[in-house]
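Case 513 in the screening queue. Each case pairs one protein sequence with one candidate compound; here the compound is glycyl-adenosine-5'-phosphate. For every case the pipeline is the same: read the inputs, emit a complex structure as tokens, and attach any notable structural observations.

Predict complex for case 513.
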Amino acid sequence: MAQEDVFKKVVSHCKEYGFVFPSSDIYDGLGAVYDYGQNGVEMKNNIKQYWWQSMVLMHENIVGIDSAIFMHPTIWKASGHVDAFNDPLIDNRDSKKRYRADVLIEEQIAKYEEKVEKEVAKARKRFGDAFDEQKYRETSPKVAEDLAKRDALHERYSKAMNAMDLDELRQIILDEEIVCPISGTRNWTEVRQFNLMFKTEMGSTADGASTIYLRPETAQGIFVNYLNVQKTGRMKIPFGIAQIGKAFRNEIVARQFIFRMREFEQMEMQFFIKPGTELDWFQTWKKTRMAWHQNLGFGAENYRFHDHEKLAHYANAATDIEFKMPFGFKEVEGIHSRTNFDLSQHEKYSGKSIKYFDPELNESYTPYVIETSIGVDRMFLSVMCHSYQEEQLENGETRVVLKLPAAIAPVKLAVMPLTKKDGLPEKAREIIDELKFHFNCQYDEKDSIGKRYRRQDAIGTPYCVTVDHQSLEDNTVTIRFRDTMEQERVNISGLLGIIEDKVSITSLLKKLK
Ligand code: GAP
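Case 513 output:
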């Protein structure tokens, strides 16, 4: 199946099976805002649990907080968001559509890369088994020409972005003959800066009301609480503070479903360290976070690091963990070495000392920070895209199945009485009443067993149990495994032992060790 089709199918599957709905759906939705349905919220909670427990349970020196969304407006001045949290935007005069200038150029760079890949694929087909891909990449004049164009464009673009030279960004768009995908024309406006923070007012609208912002990242809530936590928790450096919460950005180009939203959720951890140790800790957290992703079993080849060439003024190292989505490798998580920029800024703007007294060195300093920052929704999307599969069965039917890691699946066990009579529903309910304290169970008695299996496959339920007349006699049931569709007769008393460990977050965490 073409990757574009996979993505479309994932989006409609999410809606059809209660994972993700457009927000305000009966009013035709609200741009780039989404609601999670009955299955989506369970799955999202499992992802959050996996992250939270891997941070807070697995590290003695990491604790969590839950800070407010509304924060003192000066915080955003200190952090640089008021002055510099901007995207360069450009309008097409004919379609009246607005774009991010940097995204248009990055897409153009990607086009050169796609051309190279197409060229290589064509050659592979032409030469068959005798094809030496590496040699072809090194010697083909066409490949060399496209790579040279890509590199030249990349260099020019990086320079323009580093200098935030808006005229140059526009000139690149003109020189590359980039057209608006809607109107097909090159009738572009100037490039302008656009601040991404949402504003609102706190207090009455008369005197005294102040402009406040919906937080664009959860990290600042951690920075401004750093000393509270350090003192009350008697934390010693190195230590971390983790937080999961909503963030808001008025994204200009909000598309690709829940990949780029205006209201989204982040899982962030700031790790406070001694100055000078940051590059070692940066490497440690890169490894730790990549292991967390790969532990889900989606294949190492679907992840890569993308080290930043253009560093934010406060960072001395930064990388993204990218996942292969149906629309290419995309950032899911950022890992940043933020120096002592944020804490120093808050010290300056608040006028309060937030230095750490290091008892071992017998001196005070402003800690450096390594940040790991992952979007819950992007993580959700990557899990969905990878797990969605259409399988051709021997009987000619197609089965749609979500091969979710069992610990992430919204429902762990479906219990199905073969018929709605003869005491089978009661027996099925008995099983649920026993197991529901351990994991999420669902009762399902409607339609044929085959249809019920399909319904559970479509939401990724790893285990189904069928209760039949024999169950009343010998307390056995048929358990059916989602991925293999194999069935086994087992004793009801053995169900907990078969399922519990496999569906628990603990099982995932143990594999991390
Ligand atoms: N505190 C650092 C920070 O916020 P970021 O790279 O801007 O860094 C971190 O964001 C992560 O948050 C991203 O890797 C992504 O997963 C998620 N994220 C950012 N903007 C998003 C959006 N508009 N919609 C969904 N997720 C987003």
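Case 513 observations:
- The chain has a mean pLDDT of 95.
- The chain has 18 helices and 23 strands.
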